[in-house]
Amino acid sequence: MKYELKANQGIPASLLVMLSIATGLSVANCYYNQPLLGSIATDFKINDLSANAVATLTQVGYMLGLLFVIPLGDLLSRRKLILTNYVLAACSLLAIGTAQDIRIVWVASLITGATSVMPQFFIPLVSYHSAPSHKTRNVGIMQSCLLVGILGSRILSGLIANAWGWRMVYFIAAGLMTYCWLMMYKVLPALPAQAKETYGRLMKSLWHILRKYPYLRIASARAALAYGAFFALWSCLAFKMKQAPFFAGDDIIGALGFCGLAGAATVVFISKYISVYGARRFSLMGGAVMLVAWLTAWWGGDSYAGIIIAILLIDAGMQSIHLANQTSVVTLDAEAINRVNTLYMTIYFLGGSVGTFVAGICWEHFQWTGTAIAGLTFIALSLLVSFTFKESKI
Asked: Can you tell me where the transmembrane regions are (predicted)?
């Protein structure tokens, strides 16, 4: 059955559950590759930098999807856009699983990233239609499922790859996208376009909004730089763990995602203090935690204890920075909340893409020491933005 939705009138619990599941499964497509990069390099007989391009291109694809696909939701039926994205996602995942040429994996990874932006349709939809008394709770549920999808995907892909090979991860992921398509086909209403502007004018308005709000530029920059430091660790961790003294399998590398879940879960207990202490202080605090994380990863990187502590700290710090900055920027302009969020998330993922790319080059030439220096540089720049610009916004 297709649900009928009205603004501020409430979301049926069953629909909220299905959207939450779809959110976690959709965003997971971008992160399955992180524990698998070492195995992909071995299978295709390529160097680590070429394998790292799989993660980089996936992040670039997600950024392009945020920038160019999400605004279409204001101009076209979101139901049709969502269903089309699921079809393309399933096809691109199958292409990765069956590819015999790494160039096919690169192209398909770019498409996979671009078609995995469905949560950015779902979260505003839930916020818009939820009853006022349940908006915060329902959006919190969606954000939690988004986080579980990001961190849990690493665990799942590592376990599957160790049992049946890395390609099976993508076959299962394609099946999950087909399941999501069927689920959304049955329950989503038409969700017609809301804006009367042309696509060109809508895209041009993004530039005007970015120029209009200096705080948006500041918050996005420091979060993006921190995300670069975050992905510097996760994009090269598989290469590190495949070497001495660990010689870890994909299952062990994936299992490190449990540490990420534990680290990120700390934000649940501190999120209520963001409005009290402000996004800038949270960014400084989260940046300091990530700085310690990278120092720990550098100096203690040859022990499981050092790696685990670094993961716990870097995920806790990153989630603090991201949550503080995103929740503060979306209050800038109530009439353009989706476009403000699009700009923030696009710059955010640009930082992650650059961090992944730079860390891959540093790993190729200087191994873990180079990767650590890259991570430390990114988080130091994030802290510098917060120290330099003492914005009046919360």
From this structure: 50-70, 82-99, 105-128, 140-164, 170-193, 214-240, 252-270, 345-366, 372-389
